[in-house]
Amino acid sequence: INVEAAPLEFQGPDSAVEPxxxxxxxxxxxxxxxxxxxxxxxxxxxxxxxxxxxFVVVGGSTTKDPLSATLVIRTYYQR
Length: 79
Known about the structure:
By secondary structure, this protein is an alpha+beta fold. The protein has one helix at about 35-45, and strands at about 1-5, 20-30, 50-60, 65-79.
């Protein structure tokens, strides 16, 4: 897992909106198709807003080979 925090985005001095920050998270996964699918479904149903930036899957040339995936997601937070 690799987490990068972007600087907070301020709306202006008179704005009632709190600053919003972004976390970019890169995750390397390894497992079966069903396991990867279950992980993505847990992201889909998470209460936090999450955007999937990229999802790359390799391997699995036979039914016994596990899949390897790299997932990059973005989530947001307020100060």
